[in-house]
C-alpha cells in the first residue's frame, strides 16, 4: 500500500468498505470439510429468543421455509443445539421421524443432519446445520464432529470480532452450488451438445432451484413446448400438466436424499411419460422417456394448482400442525404459537382469549411490553364493544392494517394503546363452536393480502383444535390436583424431639396423580410416621391410597403395635377386593429414648444419616407387599435415632429411572444426603428432589418424608 496517490492519480473518492461474506464462506468451508451437501447458518436475534436463518447453501431456501425463524424452545435440532450447547445428530429418516416428527412430516426423505451452536464461552451467536445424503453412516464420526466443532468455534470468534468492531453481520446471499466443471474446450462443448441433441430420448438439466438449464430437442418435444420457452423455468410452472406438488416433491426428494428418484406423469390426453432424476450437489440430470399408461395411475392425474409456492405453504401448515399436536396444556399452546407460528408469519406479539360465564378471559399472551394493557381485557363481558369479543361471538375474522382502522371501529383502543400498529383477530372455532380468539399484533403497518388472511384463518382452525384439547386437559388436571391434595396431609405435626419435612411430586405423564403417600400420626404415647406407594398413578390408585392412609391412622390411634398396624392394613387392602398392591414403611417414633421401631412391606429401605455425617442404608426385616397374602407377617426392626440423626423415607419414584441401575441411584442419593444432610430440613427436602435423576424425568410419582431427631 502507498501512503497517498501517485503523481498521475487524482485522489480516489472514498468508498464504502466491501464486506466479505463471512457466514457464506464459513458455511461453504464446513460443508466441504465433512463432505456434506447442504447446510445453513442461523443468527440469534438480540431482542428476542428467536433464531433467524442468515444464509443457506446447497439447497433452495424454500426447502427450509417453515423454519426461517425458530423459537429457542422449539423442538428443532438447531434450537436444541443452542439450548444444550452441544452437537445434535440425527442419523437418518427413522430417527428424524422419532425425535423431530414435524420435520419428518415436511421433509420425509432419507438424509442425516448435524446441528451445532455457534458460541463463545460467554455468548451464543446462533447455530449451524449441515446435511448429508441418506447413505451417510448412522453415526457421526469423531473426525466429522471435531471438524464441525472447530469450524463453529472459528465462526463464533469471527462474529465476536465483528461485534467488537461495530460491524454486525446479517443475512447473506445463499450459496447454491458452483456452476459446475468447465468443459475443456469450445469444440468439446459443441460436440457434446450435438451428441445430446441426436439422442432419441429426452434429457434435461435442472439447477438446484429446479430451473431448466438445458433441454435437448427430444425432451422439448415430449414436454410439448419449444426449448426457448422452457429454458430458465420450473417444469411444474411452464408445463401445465406437471403443475402438481407431487412432482416438485420428487425433485426435493432427489436433492435432499441425493438418491436417484423417478415418477410417472400423464401428458394429456393419454400419453404417460417417465421422469428419472439423477442428483448431484450441483443440480439434477433428468431422463425423460415415454412410459406405458397404467390404469391404476389414472387416479393420480395432476390437477391444476396455484403454482410453485403452494408446496411451501403446505409444508408450513404441516409443520405447524405437527407442532400443535405436541401441546398439552393451554400455556403449552400459547408458548408454541409464540415460538412457532407468530415468527413464521412475522407477528411480534400475540394474545389468546377465551370465554367463560359470558366474559372474556385472557388465556395467555407474549410479546407485549406492558402486560397490564393486555390484562384489561380479562373479565370484560362478551357484549362489550371490543374486537376480541366480537370476533369470538361472531366467528368472523377481523384484520386491521393500521391503528386508524382499529380505532375507527373500536374507539376504546384510543384510551389504552398497546404500542402496535396492525392486528389480525382470528376466531378459534373447534367442533363448530368458538372456543376463543387469537390476536396477532405487528409492530408496523401491515397490509393483509387475501392469501395471508386465508393462511391465518386456517392456522386459527389448527390452534382451536389444540386449544380445545388443552382446555379439557387443564380442567382434568385441576380436578386431579384437587383430589391429590385432599388425600395428602396439609400439615405435619411431629412430636417433641422430632422435626419433619415432606415433598410430593406427581408423574409428568398421565393425569399427574398417583398412589404415593406419607403421613405423620401424632398419637399418644408415641407418634408414628408412614410412607407408601400404591401401584399405578391414576385416580384409582389415589383413591385406594386415601383408604390405606385412613386405615393406618385408625390402627395407630387405637394403639396397635407396628407389626399389627401393617398386618391390619394388609387385610384391609385384601378385603377391599382391589387388584392393586401397595408397598409401605411404618415407624413408631420414640425420640425420648432415641430410637424408632420400623415395619416394612416391600418398600425401598430408608437412609439414615448419623450425627457424624455418615449415611447408611437401613437393612430392615420385612414382609411382602400389602394386598397379596392375608396371613403375611411383618417383623419389626429397632433403629437408633440419636439427636442429630436424619431419616430419609422415600418412594421408588425418587430413585428409579429408565436406563439407570437402582443401586447406582441409591449410592448417588446417599452421597448427596451425606454432603448436605446438615442443612435445614425444608432446604434438604428440596435439594434431594431437585438433584434426583428420576425427579427430572418423573415417569412415576414420588414422595419424600424427612425426620430429624433433636434434643427435646
TrEMBL record:
The keyword Magnesium applies. It comes from the Bacteria. It is an enzyme of class 3 (hydrolase). SMART domains: GAF (SM00065), PAS (SM00091), PP2C_SIG (SM00331). Residues 194-232 form the PAS domain. One of its GO terms (molecular function) is protein serine/threonine phosphatase activity. Keywords: ATP-binding, Hydrolase, Kinase, Magnesium, Manganese, Metal-binding, Nucleotide-binding, Phosphoprotein, Protein phosphatase, Transferase. It catalyses: O-phospho-L-seryl-[protein] + H2O = L-seryl-[protein] + phosphate. Gene3D superfamilies: 3.30.450.40, PAS domain, PPM-type phosphatase domain. Transmembrane segments: none annotated. InterPro entries: Bact_Sigma-Reg, GAF, GAF-like_dom_sf, PAS, PAS-like_dom_sf, PAS_4, PPM-type-like_dom_sf, PPM-type_phosphatase-like_dom. Its EC number is 3.1.3.16. Primarily acts as an independent SigF regulator that is sensitive to the osmosensory signal, mediating the cross talk of PknD with the SigF regulon. Possesses both phosphatase and kinase activities. The kinase domain functions as a classic anti-sigma factor-like kinase to phosphorylate the anti-anti-sigma factor domain at the canonical regulatory site, and the phosphatase domain antagonizes this activity. This is protein-serine/threonine phosphatase. It comes from Streptomyces griseochromogenes. The lineage of its organism: Bacteria, Bacillati, Actinomycetota, Actinomycetes, Kitasatosporales.
